[in-house]
Every structure is written in structure tokens, then in C-alpha cells.
From TrEMBL:
Coiled coil: none annotated. SUPFAM superfamilies: CheY-like, Homeodomain-like, P-loop containing nucleoside triphosphate hydrolases. This is Acetoacetate metabolism regulatory protein AtoC. PANTHER family: ALGINATE BIOSYNTHESIS TRANSCRIPTIONAL REGULATORY PROTEIN ALGB, TRANSCRIPTIONAL REGULATORY PROTEIN. It comes from the Bacteria. Residues 143-373 form the Sigma-54 factor interaction domain.
Amino acid sequence: MLRNVLIVDDDASMRHLLSLILKDRGYETRAVSTAEDALREIASRDHDLVLTDVRMPGIGGLALVRELQRIAPDLLVVVMSAYGAHDAAIDAMKAGAYDYLAKPFKPDEVVLLLRKAEERERLARENRRLRGELAAAYRPDAIVGTSEAMESALRQVRKVAPQKTTVLLEGESGTGKELVARALHELSPRASMPFVAVNCGAIPADLLESELFGHVKGAFTDARRDKKGLAAEADGGTLFLDEIGELPLGLQVKLLRFLQEEEVRPVGDVRARKVDVRVVAATARDLARAVAAAQFREDLYWRLNVVAVRLPPLRERRDDIPALAGHFLARHARLRPELPGLALSPEARDALLAHRWPGNVRELEHALERAVVLADGPVIREEDLPDTVRAAPARGAPAVAVPEGSLSVKRAIRAVEEQLIRAALERTGGNRTRAAELLDLSYRALLYKIKDYGLG
């Protein structure tokens, strides 16, 4: 609450009137007649808000606003202007004042303005709190994992984060690539600017260019107005390109130009505008193999692969599973506030350690969230875990069925691929997004294969 208000006005009657109005509404006030006295007052005690006239002898209200911006930038300042001093009030707001109050005014107008200022300050505090929590959540030391493989990745993150260098995050689906991308952002000088994430595999190819770079009105049938692209939205901050391996070849050329020239050209526009963006890309695909297969541009690959950080799959960091499990149980404990002190039974812990986790950390979190919801008590039992996690002996890929009467590698590969897709769809109850994660395929690639094998 803004309770301590300093009134600055050379008119004694105005100081007295404002003091009466504000004290009657519960505010603590002090009143001075000059800007010089105001500066001394601010240096000697705390105030939440300054209410100052614009025109005063000596240092005027505008100069006071500028000085307060220098010595106490978080202090809210409201300027008062008499009839004819409107332009001076506008200048004061440009110099950093929160708002202005035109004289003469009604008592309720003063109180309403202060209430608005209080709400603004409350929102600002909440924003600072949330930003602090966000920054803490995405610090590398807040990312759970002490295995050597994970520590090695996080050491790279700490080193490269302060630079504008492009980073390529490599790892299977569910290994935490977006979490690390946000850590790179939060540890950089760009932390106060936007972090914009784009899933290149989730946006239809014909819309992706417009989403990334924007468009002008009339560029295509549905372009009814100008649209700012996500690359421009990230100006000054970080652009995270997830599933970069799914980017269509035609758009790869335009992304390469964007990275080289640091400018965006909206669809249908002849002009380009400069942007200052740090790019972090992520992929679950082997991009080097995609380059060799002419599915990904080599020049773009090397432009993205300035610093590559590999995030290990969960099966390569099993020592982290108990700590991760504890972290997720604590996170989802809010779902069952009547069950304090959630913990794993020895059998449940053994099941978690035995599972191969094809969906990696994401699969582990979902399994534990489900277990928390279904638990009958504070101890998570093995039977609270999903069937796919509990069925240790049945884990792994289904047996390969060699096509009868043929040793054709191509036919065998198709048979195995179809088997795996059927098994994934069955395991996930037909959930194609989840099945794509288990198969380590993009959603788009899975839909194509389902159609190809007639499984849909």
C-alpha cells in the first residue's frame, strides 16, 4: 500500500487542503513548499509517492521529477498542473512522472489517482516477484541433476549464456531442452527482455513463415491486417526454435538469411527491419545425418551449431532419478494437500530405476503426477505408477517379425517401423502426441507414417 505521501507545493492553502483530504482517507502525509525541501525530506525518510506542483519558484516540478528519477527511480511521482500548464505536465510525464492531476480538482479525483497508483505498484511488485521466481526456476543450479553427463551440459550453459552466440541444444524428446534454453536466457544480459519459443514442428509449413517473420495486410487471402512475427517479438531477447530439424527446406533459406543479416522481412513486404535477437535452437533429430541425407541445409546447420550442448537421456543419468522423483512429488503435492510428506515406497523407487524412460524426464514427471492423483496415502506405491512403468519385464521394443519368405532389409525395416508405431499407439491409448514422443518422431512425421501404413 502507498501510505506515505510527500506533498510539494508553494501554495500553503493547497498543501493544507491535500493534507486534509489524504489524512481523511488514511494516508500519512508530509508537506513542503519547495523542491529543495522535498529532496532533503526524501533523503531523510522513506516515502511511497510524491505529489508535486509543476510550477514552483527555484527548482520547478519538472526538474524535481528528473532528479527523483536519478536518485530514486522506483519512487512514484504525480504532478499537479493548473489551467494552462498542461504541456508542462506532459513534459513531466515524459521525464518519468506516473500521472498528472489538473487543478482545480475534486477530493475524489485525488484519491482515485492514488488508488490507481497503488494498483500499479502492486502489479509491479507482483511482476518483480514472478520474474524472480522465474529466474530462480531456470538457473542451472535449479535444474535437478548431479550426474556427470548433466553437470557437463550445465557447465557449458554457464559459460555460453552471457554471450550472444547461437546455441544448438541436442537431445531426445523430454530431456529438458526448453528448460535449458530458458536458463540460457535468464543467465544472459537479455533476461529482462522477451523469451519467445517457437515449435517448428507444431506449426503447419504454410503458416510457419508468417508466424516467424510476420506479414503485411493483403500478403495472402486471410492477411486482413499487418502482423508482427515472433522473431520481431523477441527483439532484444531470445528466440527459441524448438524442433528445428522439422523446418521445411524452403524456410531454412530464409532463416539462414535472418541469422546472417539480423533482419526480418514480413511476408508480402519489400522492406526489412533490423532486430537484435539471440537464437537458441533445439532438435531431437541427428542434424548431421539429416544434412547428409539432403534433408537439412549444411550452411544453416553450421550457422546454428556454433555451440552444441547435448542433453543426456534419462537412461544415461539414472542416478538422478530419485532426486528428480522427489522434485516432482514436491511440485505436484499441491494436488493432494491432504497428503503431507509424499514419498516413494522402495518398490516404486525400484520400478522407476528399472524403467528405460523413452519419454525421458517429461515421462517421469507425468508418471509421478498420475501417481500423486491416484495415491491412497502419502506413500506412493508401485501400483500407483502407470502400467508402462510397472511392467519391467515387458519393457523394451516388441520382438521383430521378419517378413515371411523374404530377407529384404527394406521390407523388414517397414515391418519393424509399423510394429513400433502400433505398439506406441496401443501403449498410449491412441494418443498420437504421446506416441510421437515415445517413438522419438515429430508429430508431423508420425501422422505421415500412420497414413502410409494405413493405421489411421
